Amino acid sequence: MSVRDTTPDPSAASFRERGGREHVPGTPVRDLLSAREFTLGDSSVVRRLLPTLGRRMVGAWAFVDHYGPDDIADQPGMQVPPHPHIGLQTVSWLHAGEVLHRDSAGHVQTIRPRELGLMTSGRGISHSEQSPVPHPQLLHGAQLWVALPDHARHTAPDFEHHAQLPQVSAPGLDATVILGELDGALSPGTVHTPLMGADLTLRQGTDLRLPVEADFEYAVLTMSGTTEVDGVRLDPGSMLYLGTGRRDLPLRAVDGESQFLLLGGEPFAEKLVMWWNFVGRTHEEIATARQDWETGDRFGHVLGYEGASTPAPALPDHPLQPRGRER
Predict the structure, then answer these.
(1) What is the pLDDT of residues 263-284, one digit of tens each?
(2) For the chain, what are the domain ranges?
(3) CATH superfamily, with its number, for domain 26-265
(4) What is the pTM of this model?
């Protein structure tokens, strides 16, 4: 098994030339990231693992929420009203349950476990996310954002749904390639920087070393079971930042089967302003996007959602400053 680089479009070559690695430790690290709990929409409680204190990004991965498993048999489940995005891609990833996606570009799609829902906001889109009626008893998943580089962040908005994704197997290991490439298996999801994401299952008793790309930085999010990653025990909802400079990654399933996400990518070179649901480059750009949402410009309308859209919060009193990958 080997991990290879993704195949971005030719304009991404300048990303490699600019680097980003000068701000990343050249040796592996083991930083356990602390989660903060938030209420998402009307009812869902999520654990936010990225951005967090000291760490804003892993490659182009700029946001990670983990939620569930929650018993929603007698509950409405996920109810996230229409809200806007610029400058990013959203990745909806489920282990249990269903999420109904609607967006202002006209896409309506139910996303199920191990299916990729990938929305590219580009210059602006709005969407809602709901547990459909009726819905399964359990809801468990992760919501992730990928920051778009400058050459791709003003594109037209789009949405991709891929029900079938490449699989990779090794003794004691099964993996689904979410984005990018793993062991020669390439996800059909569109990427704009050197990036990878995979959902891995380690069967009971598995102890192996997974080859990885030395130029990438990585993090692991445990979804269920207990995973030991490079000697660090990770319980469900835990995320470990691993840095760069690795050729392989020791993994071990502890006390039964474990399931986790491996997120990686070449360190993102550009400084970003990340505020609310927007990823931009300047305070003025963010302020304009907020105003456009409040006035009904640019972001369109999500048809079929019954209820009000999410109002934008107030901007802070001080100008928003572009920042690098670390807080």
Answers:
(1) 999 999 999 999 999 999 999 9
(2) 26-265
(3) Jelly Rolls (2.60.120.10)
(4) 0.91
